[in-house]
Amino acid sequence: MTSQARGAGLGVMADPTRTRILRLIDDAPDGRALVGKMAEHLDLRQPTVSHHMAALHAEGLVVRQREGRRTWYSLHPDRQSRIRALLGTAPATVDEPDWRRVVDDLAARYRGTVSRETVARCVAESRDLLAAAGTAPLLASRTATFAATRLDDLQRTAHPASEVPTVLFVCVQNAGRSQLAAAILRRLAGDRVIVRSAGSAPATEVRPAILAALDEIGVAVGAEFPKPLTDDTVRAADVVVTMGCGDACPVYPGRRYLDWDLEDPLDKPLSVVRGIRDDIDGRVRALLDELFPGDAASVAS
Questions:
Q1: Residue 236's closest CA among 169, 153, 149?
Q2: What phi and psi values does residue 169 have, to the nearest 5 degrees?
Q3: Are the C-beta atoms of residues 157 and 127 closer than 8 Å to each other?
Q4: Nearest 5 degrees, angle CA 17-CA 29-CA 175?
Q5: What is the pLDDT of residue 26?
Q6: Nearest to 233 by CA among 222, 223, 248, 216
Q7: Residue 252 parent element (H or E)
Q8: pLDDT tens for residues 197-215?
């Protein structure tokens, strides 16, 4: 399957009704469902559900199986893992993660700069924060990533010698606006800016509509996932950009705080998300121009 087809598939999933349909199919006892039953469950007309199923089938997200007059739909076996990851229903690890190894590896990475006790405490706190937010899939690897980010921030706060500015984007779920802004800034700034994002009440996964809207303009989220907002992340930031998270973000002296009044893309169609994306893109470019005044031409549209 081509990268263009994969991107289109993400766009199809961006529709909230199609996301609900895929979840219904995946939750079915035998992993398959009928259009009529789904229409009844979703309180929609059958032709409406049939239209969505045709779009999902055209993009290779579902397969059809005819049994007499009935047509069953199930997730495409080659795309189940990706779909479930986007839906936030990827199966949890059966065995308990090897937390000692996670600590050992991070302790080796930060040897000479951070004590093992600090590493172990950060891993435990990061694990508990992510678990409380409902991040069961990939908990160990996400904990290791989140802990490493926090340890980097702690070091930068303790030894503020770097001339590379840190920008933190904060929204409620860290699954929409803040992820859009962070991804766009990473693409535009490269290693000139350290980019962070967090949520006051983080979701489990970045929303499919956000991934689709970014993919359209050649921006990848990569391995990013929603993360809880922590004090150490705010302390390490030079610029904190809030987006509808109210008073959840702590205020510390010496930081620049910006509040961007942006529409929440939650449950919005891709056409609306594109507008929010482009609004954020303009704001990010303006911020980057302010951080590096002499490089304005390099980030021009």
A1: 153
A2: -105, 130
A3: no
A4: 40
A5: 87
A6: 248
A7: none
A8: 999 999 888 988 899 999 9
Domains of the chain, start order: 3-87 (1.10.10.10), 95-161 (1.10.8.1060), 163-301 (3.40.50.2300)
Q: How crowded is residue 15: how many other Cβ atoms within 10 Å of its Cβ?
A: 20
**Mind listing the pLDDT tens digit for each residue in 78-91?**
888 778 777 766 65
C-alpha–C-alpha distance, residues 103 and 109, integer Å: 10
Q: At what angle do helices 99-109 and 116-132 cross, to 10 degrees?
A: 130
Eight-state DSSP code of residue 58:
H
User: Encoding tokens for residue 232?
Assistant: 């150490």
Degrees, nearest 5: CA angle 53-80-30: 75
Residue 299 CA to residue 184 CA, distance in Å, equals 11
C-alpha dihedral, 86 to 20 to 22 to 19, nearest 10°: -40
- HSE (CB half, 13 Å, CA atoms) of 96? 3
Report whether 225 contacts 198 (CB < 8 A): no
Classify 62 as helix, strand or coil: strand
Residue type, 271: S
Are the beta carbons of 172 and 199 closer than 8 angstroms?
A: yes
DSSP-assigned states of every residue in 166-217: EEEEEESSSSSHHHHHHHHHHHHHGGGSEEEEEESS--SS--HHHHHHHHHT
CB 206 within 8 A of CB 178: no
- Among positive and negative, which fits the CA dihedral 8, 139, 280, 188? negative
Q: Is the pLDDT reported for residue 187 higher than 80?
A: yes
pLDDT in tens, 165-176: 999 999 999 999
| Calpha distance 273→275 (Å, rounded) | 5
- Are 188 and 299 a contacting pair, CB within 8 Å? yes
